[in-house]
Amino acid sequence: MPLISICIPAYKRVDYLKRLLDSITMQTFRDFEVVVTDDSPDDSVEQLLLTYSAILPIVYFKNQPAKGTPANWNVGISKAKGEWIKLIHDDDWFAEENSLQVFVNHIATGKHFIFSAYANRVNEKSHAQVMHLQHSWKKRIIKEPMTLLAYNVVGPPSVTLLHRSITEQYDERMKWRVDMDFYVRLLLQEKNFCYIDKVLVNVGISETQVTNYCFQNPAVELPEGYLLLEKYGSQRLKNIWVYDAWWRLLRNMHIRQTAQLTSEVDKPWPTVIIKMVADLNSMPDFVLKTGVLSKLAMGISYIRFILG
């Protein structure tokens, strides 16, 4: 049994996949398998993998029919035989030849949830936007994991290493908040994590990413937000970071009437959200468009909520 299963959910993008496979080939740590689960409508991924079969221990699965994301992520994890799971998307790649070794070195911490700093890149030679976890956020997300709704300070799944004892799956009802929701459940279960303050993974930025469709799209954001409220309860908004995240979400989507909520999710919304929408509607546009004034308005709304 390998120590690490590198799980790659693939879909057509063979140029990106080749970049990832090349970065795996260069890794100094070698006790791994590469599990590729393929949603492609053609055999382009399979043909590429054949060129790596002599140099990488690849296990290939063709999804028929295609699973879509994040179901394909779950399929890959279910096929893994390693003690540790390293999910990495096909458009991301390891930053250094010892990236996997550094992940493995931190297994000794005893934590089952490990993640690293990362760099957002358009391509190998582009300027890197380096993403580090600020120290102030470590205790914050352990104390109240739902603060990840404000800022997903963990990052995409590609930056994580998980022990196979973690049985949580990615919620296949979600696409946009799916990784955040997964991390919330991990933190509620594990109550700790190991963070590596070193860029070990490059995260590819492209126009094909789900972000471009989902970001501030009420048809996506509101149903997934409602699902989070169902799963974790509206009492989480007593944390001001969670409250502020909802305030900014509704503000940026120009949600000012309850009817806008029910047009996307025709169910009873929590009172706190209904009142927040009313507070937003009572504010002039110039207040909501001015950062410091919007923050002050949010604070007043939050105090009203806490005082009942």
From TrEMBL:
Residues 5-144 form the Glycosyltransferase 2-like domain. InterPro entries: Glyco_trans_2-like, Glycosyltransf_2, Nucleotide-diphossugar_trans. It comes from the Bacteria. Gene3D superfamilies: Spore Coat Polysaccharide Biosynthesis Protein SpsA, Chain A (3.90.550.10). This is Glycosyltransferase.
